């Protein structure tokens, strides 16, 4: 039998004799509400908002509820993107337009999996989209990882961006050398924040507490360490260029690491070629007069160390904190992006007081009933349709893994939205009305959960902007959920 879809309701009614139809309609009028597909999205980062935007744009009636575990929306746009990249955060304007639609509602302070389960959402909505990102970090899995002075990039980034769970991190910046493990854009964000003069950060939305700690920081040297070579770095040219021109810092690159690369990049894709050319120029060419003067007087420095894999965090003599890191020297097997680093047997010790591990984010399973691929850290899916679970979809980092920028996330979220609309129109989603938020609101109320709406967020937003104005910055982020609830009169 062909699946019944909510769109077939009028046909179902038409098959009844006129009297029955009248009786039915007099008892339970065929309301517009019943023809409204109820969709719920879990997570209010770029994936959640772009999926919602696509759904609202391509269907005239459906309603979207976005559930978010934090009191505030926007995911990594708020808690990940570096404070000195305000232009990236402009996507918030588009997300705000979506949230203000009268067919969309934002419900913050609701952690799916704890306050309400995915099966409960599946019961209340025609379709559920999981867009809850990648919130864990990949552990290094080496001895000494637990020592004070070792942090994940995720926690460090959360700290300077006001993520409530990291606001008390208080990293010890009294050492002169920091090592960042990993060579992606997040690693460069962390290096840049560590080395940027605080007066440049004062005009950003970085939290006051982290700015205070960065003002006291003694860190002068940052090593950015990768297992593989210059042809495999994962950062992009914009972020590298920012490092090369960072006021008060000079790059330390070993020319020998770049020997012979010029010939090997001739046929590489353009972004990789341009990136490698910039690395090559920085490592091997004499800088211009202005740059040379800048580098000569720079009190801070950063460097890239290639072919080094972390083996052990070395403790201080009293065993109380980090004093360095032991790196295994590696060589490459294979070529290009797919080349593998294998140890040569040599090791090198690099003294440092801070180790920031930036080897990737990781999604976690949200509910035992939902398929999850622990190896790839994603929900198995075909074009956003969760494999084996009709009516369940995913988008963003939990769909394709924790790589790619907001633009990439936008494209894949639009594809998920497209798949959902196709299924809706093809009659593949449950027929008949679904209660949507009405049921979930009652459930949450019975569990003592107090969701916050988008207009609540707009009050907090206004408060942050007003506090920022006093401090001469775009906003002063609220980081304490209790204070936020108090401000909302809860
Ligand atoms: C440090 C860092 C810096 C970055 N900088 C840039 C940049 O400058 N430019 C750029 O284009 N891209 C940048 N990116 C990439 C960009 O942030 C991602 O592509 C994008 O945020 C992924 O979107 P997402 O919605 O899948 O995940 P997220 O943005 O992580 O959103 C997931 C949302 O789900 C919520 N959530 C999680 N679990 C639950 C739950 N159980 N219940 C309810 N809600 C839940 C989270 O709180 C979060 O709000 C950066 C990424 C990082 C990590």
UniProtKB/TrEMBL annotation:
Pathway(s) per entry: Steroid metabolism; cholesterol metabolism
Catalytic activity: 2 reduced [adrenodoxin] + NADP(+) + H(+) = 2 oxidized [adrenodoxin] + NADPH
Superkingdom field: Eukaryota
Alphabetically ordered keywords of this record: FAD, Flavoprotein, Mitochondrion, NADP, Oxidoreductase
Primary subcellular site in the record, as a coarse category: mitochondrion
Entry's family note: Belongs to the ferredoxin--NADP reductase type 1 family.
Cited Gene3D superfamilies: FAD/NAD(P)-binding domain, NAD(P)-binding Rossmann-like Domain
Enzyme nomenclature, EC number: 1.18.1.6
Cellular localization per UniProt: Mitochondrion
Biased composition (Basic and acidic residues): 463-480
Designated name of the protein: NADPH:adrenodoxin oxidoreductase, mitochondrial
Cofactor(s) essential for the protein: FAD
Region (Disordered): 463-490
